[in-house]
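Researcher: Structure for this, please.
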Amino acid sequence: MNTLPKVVTIVGSTASGKTSLGVFLCQKFGGEIISADSRQVYRGLDLGTGKEGVPSLSFPPATPKRQRGERKRESRNSPNSGSPIESGMTTRLINDIPQYLIDIKNPEEKFNVHDFKVNAELVIDNMISRNRLPFIVGGTGLYIDALVENYEFGGRDNKQKNPPKYQVLQIGIKIPRDVETNGRSSLHQRIDKRVDERMQQGMLEEVRGLLDSGVNPQWLISLGLEYKFLTEHLIGKISDLDQALQELKYATHAFARRQETWFNHHGDVKWISEKEEAVNIVQNFL
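Model: Predicted structure, token format:
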């Protein structure tokens, strides 16, 4: 019998609805979310990385192990399990569901897969101590892989696979590619619509504000996608905004294909297209 703690990952391409599914499942199963997104760790990178919810500075402490005679630990679905304290661990709340490892670094500060794994394991241990089910949600495949395969990083490009620390259920969101309107797949339509919506919400102003605050444009460009093309527009490398946005959309289409390829070749991902499918899979896992 496998007695390792249970963890659920939700993966898929950009714009596939991972966070929405994660919040839905957390509400069903008493879970909390860890973001596995290499850009959401940075403060001020909000619209371009698709952060949701509202910021919060509270982080629940671990619940001490019960001593003999103490009352049983509260259930996953109890709203009072764990007393929030401020401890420097920033969260965001999406419909009262905490989401961790967001807004923990300033722009240009170093953060890599090793840092993610160390921080994610600390948060997972905290969730488990409070009888919460950890949901790892994101599209950075290397981050997900590091947790699932329990890699130990010993230096540059040096990793060692260790025995697993968790029982992991991997759920992937599959967006059909055979549904097309005006020559665009449904996923491409979602990507393009999201770019347009974020522009209306002020994504260009967000990038301009980062540059005005002194963030190195080359660092923003190195992040790719939204920050690359909007920065190149603002510094004059791409003079026409419409051209920058079209290049951004095409680049995001290609990025989504690379994400799908990664997750198809890494781990035992159970692909779903409806939320209720995921509910059944998680129930069977638990």
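Researcher: Any notable elements?
Model: The longest strand covers residues 85-94. The first helix runs from residue 18 to 29.
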